[in-house]
Amino acid sequence: MQQLIDGYAKFRSKVFPQHSELFEKLSTGQQPQALFICCSDSRVMPEMIMQCEPGVLFPIRNAGNLVPVPGEASSGVAATVEYAIRVLNVADVIICGHSDCGAMKGMLHMEQLESLPVVKAWLENAGASSRGRLASVKDAEALPFQEKLALLAELNVIAQVENLKAHPAVYEAMRRGTLKVHGWMYDIGSGGIRRFDTEKGSFVALLPEDQPVIEAGVRDERKIA
Ligand SMILES: [Zn+2]
């Protein structure tokens, strides 16, 4: 805890004064560029990865970067999505999965979640479409665990993008041409981001120059959707 208080003291004495004009501007409103949906995992820091100042990203974080289908309002995800699009008019939504995700591990071992009934219910409900996609991949069950985990994390991003598009605020804005939805995967070990390329049906490096670096640490690119 002391580390956090010390960090706050540094923010108050050094960081805040350096950005006081920005905070003054932000004190009366926000105009974020993108809704960023990612996992609660402590190793995923969107503002650091995207090098964003306060006010740029509008975040939703939960276990597994899941977006329940419309009608499931209790998680608060739907409300935040609706607000970001209809009130804040964000131009982009990014759903960003990540490597070594505990929620994805949980989805592969639901039987081990007996002591975590709330997590289990969350993954069962909001993750149903992701597990369904994995089940429909030929021979997925026979893959080594790490490969299966990586595959599920990718399929999860694709499934959650589809769940997101079913929300009225999202499909209406997409139909108007004012909103784009993106599916990304962040690799913790390399710091690399891959985006889902809908034409190729696979994830490719977000930065073209990154392709060899990222692919070195990730299984072969293959068509998954
Ligand atoms: Zn995670």
Word description of this protein:
The chain is an alpha/beta fold and 225 residues long. It has a single domain, classed as Carbonic anhydrase (Beta-carbonic Anhydrase, Chain A), CATH 3.40.1050.10. Helix content is 44%, strand content 16%. It is built from ten helices and six strands; from the N terminus they run H-H-E-H-E-H-E-H-H-H-H-H-E-E-E-H. The protein has helices spanning 2-18, 20-26, 46-49, 77-86, 102-108, 117-126, 128-135, 145-165, 168-176, 211-217; strands at residues 34-39, 57-62, 92-98, 180-186, 193-197, 202-205. A six-stranded mixed beta sheet has the order 2-1-3-4-5-6. Helix 3 links the parallel strand 1 and strand 2 (57-62). It is globular and about 55 Å long. 30% of the residues are buried. Bound molecules: zinc ion. Zinc ion binds next to helix 5.
Keywords:
single chain, 225 residues, alpha/beta, Beta-carbonic Anhydrase, Chain A, 6 strands, globular, binds zinc ion
Q: What is the element layout, followed by pairings?
A:
Elements: H1 2-18, H2 20-26, E1 34-39, H3 46-49, E2 57-62, H4 77-86, E3 92-98, H5 102-108, H6 117-126, H7 128-135, H8 145-165, H9 168-176, E4 180-186, E5 193-197, E6 202-205, H10 211-217
Parallel strand pairs: 1-2, 1-3, 3-4
Antiparallel strand pairs: 4-5, 5-6
